[in-house]
Amino acid sequence: MKPVVISDLSVAFGALRVLHDVSFDVAAGECFGLVGESGSGKSTVLRCASMLWSKWTGEVRIGDRSVREMSAADRCRTLQMVFQDPFGSLHPRHSIRTVLSEPLKIQNIPDRDDRMAQALCDVGLPVDFLDRYPHQLSGGQRQRVAIARALIVEPDVLFLDEPTSALDVSVQAEIINLLMRLRGEKGLTYVMVSHDLAVIDHMCDRFAVMQAGRVVEVLNREAIAGNGATQAYARDLIDASLEYERAL
Ligand SMILES: Nc1ncnc2c1ncn2[C@@H]1O[C@H](COP(=O)(O)OP(=O)(O)OP(=O)(O)O)[C@@H](O)[C@H]1O
Fold first, then answer.
1. Which domains does the chain have, with CATH numbers?
2. How far apart are CA 247 and CA 19, in angstroms?
3. Mean pLDDT confidence for 93-114
4. What single DSSP character describes residue 58?
5. Measuring CA to CA, how many Å separate 87 from each of 16, 75, 82, 125, 181?
6. Mean pLDDT value across residues 84-91
7. DSSP code of 186?
8. Which end of the chain, C or N, has fewer beta carbons within 10 A?
9. Where is each ABC transporter domain found (predicted)?
């Protein structure tokens, strides 16, 4: 299990400064949430910390290593991402076998057939799905494949960017439960973006509230139910979410 430490992460796109000295620590094996209004910079934190975008300042460490010091191959075996839209993140003309075998080939990992079968089993899909294509799967099944693809290289850390928000409510619960089971079984550390405080409450130990590219407050999960935030913006965000839930 590895911790994640993000220190003074700042980034600008042209003249627009999008992240301002974002810092937070995630303990080994913890699930840490990022919440905040649209455009507050949550996904940008994940994109920078995973080096999908590398023109930032500050430091991101996983275990005792900076993500900048890692080779691309090392980084892939340390850190994987799961995105919101499982259809968009799977190539429509690639069978599930191709989707799952590619990272194994790139990483030169042997025993590919066994690994692919195990990866599908881990996410609750039958092995004969290897010969299917993304359009032959439901949204939830596609997200299970995306999770299997992320886990097949046995990373230490998963960055989850709204992993359930494109799914039906009943399927959301299945994917949340799957992610929670896998974290325990494989000793993973999660950093998860979500706009849904109910999902954060269910999955995360702690979470950061972001506003306009800054971390406003880091809170324990328990702060949601009684709204224990001390900063006005974080309090308003939690209040709005609690009111919305009451209205449902
Ligand atoms: N590649 C880019 N070029 C220019 N601006 C960008 C780029 N990526 C993100 N931004 C801007 O950075 C800001 C933060 O975007 P980001 O996607 O991180 O927000 P978010 O909090 O994840 O929002 P949402 O909840 O809507 O996904 C936004 O103003 C966005 O327009």
1. 4-247 (3.40.50.300)
2. 33
3. 92
4. E
5. 30, 24, 12, 17, 23
6. 76
7. H
8. C
9. 4-237
Which of 10, 22, 43, 216 best tests ligand 1's pocket when mutated (most atoms within 8 Å of CB)?
A: 43
Give the per-residue pLDDT at 87.
Answer: 66
Measured by CA distance, the residue closest to atom 4 of ligand 1 is 13
* Distance in angstroms (rounded) separating the CA atoms of residues 32 and 215: 13
Q: What pairs with residue 22 in β-bridges? A: 9
Q: Report CA 50 to chain centroid distance, whole Å.
A: 11
pLDDT > 90: what percent of the chain?
A: 73
What pTM, to 2 d.p., does this model score? 0.92
The predicted-structure confidence for 190-213, as pLDDT tens digits, reads as follows 999 998 888 999 899 999 999 999
**Cβ atoms 148, 119 nearer than 8 A:** yes
Q: Tokens for 22?
A: 């974002």
Rg over alpha carbons for the chain, rounded to the nearest Å, is 18
pLDDT at 23 over 90: yes
